[in-house]
UniProtKB/TrEMBL annotation:
Lineage, broadest ranks: Bacteria, Pseudomonadati, Pseudomonadota, Alphaproteobacteria, Sphingomonadales
Alphabetical keyword list: Kinase, Transferase
Region (Disordered): 116-157
Protein name: Histidine kinase
Pro residues bias (residue ranges): 146-157
């Protein structure tokens, strides 16, 4: 008798599992956005473009070249190329004598150590050391596709 009971419960469990799987699939299909249709209607002829425009390496390199070419003559001179490094050197050379001493070079690191050493003991505890980790920028989100246009009011009353 218990075999019939277990068999019946197993059959009910299979039916319930089948219904859950069937309903889950129906919800995911119903939740799909209709953005591709909206995009297809906005382009000429109702078709999507064959290729997506992307920034080429030449474009990036041209932007980099333009940052260095300050006088916009189409050439990067030695002075233009070294200008950012001269500015960085001048920031480090605090006494402006043209010679960068170790103390001038290490001032940023010394300042960072002094700020992290909260108890001023001359040594950092593990908790203090954690605060010296470099702050990383959030990764840039790369968007290969243009944003979808706002949906048209198809359901006007």
């Amino acid at each position: 008798m218990w075999r019939y009971l277990v068999g019946g419960l197993a059959a009910l469990a299979l039916v319930a599992a089948g219904m859950l799987l069937f309903n889950r699939g129906a919800r995911s299909v119903a939740a799909l956005p209709s953005a591709p249709l909206a995009l297809a209607q906005t382009t000429e002829g109702g078709a999507l473009p064959a290729t997506v425009p992307e920034a080429s390496e030449k474009t990036r390199e041209q932007k980099r070249f333009d940052r260095y070419d300050k006088d916009r003559d189409g050439k990067v001179t030695r002075e233009e190329y070294l200008a950012p490094r001269r500015k960085a050197y001048a920031k480090l050379d605090t006494n402006h004598d043209g010679v960068l001493s170790f103390d001038e070079w290490a001032v940023k690191t010394e300042t960072k150590f002094a700020e992290a050493d909260k108890d001023k003991s001359g040594a950092m505890t593990p908790a203090e050391f954690v605060s010296t980790a470099p702050k990383r920028k959030a990764p840039r989100v790369r968007r290969d596709c243009p944003p979808a246009p706002p949906p048209a009011n198809a359901e006007e009353s």
